[in-house]
Inverse folding.
């Protein structure tokens, strides 16, 4: 019988990942990080339009997305994907990989339906931890008003009711 770690490693290895970033050097870095953690099936998109097309045609298991790109930028991209009435694969997990650390951006990403938020530069260990989190503890997708995205995490502190708003407890590297 395989250990749980071996099972997870096999799941990670089999992932089909799409990296959406307009900077060739950042796509190269993301590819190297993904290869370092064992992912072989990696596709790249040069901008948001290309990324949306590649989600439709390649059906990735995971998207790694930059915030700052020509239109559509990262937030516009997430809005387009998280539109179940209009986009064919609205449930694809999205990790926002960005250089922006402002709390307001983290909250916006969360409210848009991003699964995880990581800061550049990122280590392969931190990236792997977020990918494993998505695989091992997938959050169901929910529709609440205008929000469509992963079930919010429980809030920090003693507030028992978190059903109305997505939580502010994103993991940041």
């Amino acid at each position: 019988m395989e250990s749980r770690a071996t099972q997870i490693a096999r799941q990670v290895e089999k992932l089909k990942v799409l990296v959406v970033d307009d900077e060739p050097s950042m796509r190269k870095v993301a590819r190297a990080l993904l290869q370092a953690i064992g992912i072989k099936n990696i596709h790249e998109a040069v901008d948001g339009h290309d990324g949306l097309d590649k989600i439709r045609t390649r059906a990735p298991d995971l998207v790694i997305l930059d915030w700052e790109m020509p239109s559509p930028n990262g937030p516009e991209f997430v809005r387009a994907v998280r539109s179940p009435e209009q986009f064919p694969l609205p449930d694809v997990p999205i990790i926002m990989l960005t250089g922006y650390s402002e709390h307001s951006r983290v909250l916006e990403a969360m409210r848009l339906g991003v699964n995880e938020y990581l800061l550049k530069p990122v280590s392969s260990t931190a990236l792997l931890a977020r990918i494993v989190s998505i695989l091992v503890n997938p959050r169901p997708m929910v529709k609440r008003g205008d929000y469509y995205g992963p079930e919010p995490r429980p809030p920090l502190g003693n507030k028992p009711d978190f059903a109305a708003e997505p939580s502010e407890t994103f993991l940041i590297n």
Notes: The CA atoms of residues 155 and 169 lie 6 Å apart. The longest strand covers residues 16-20.
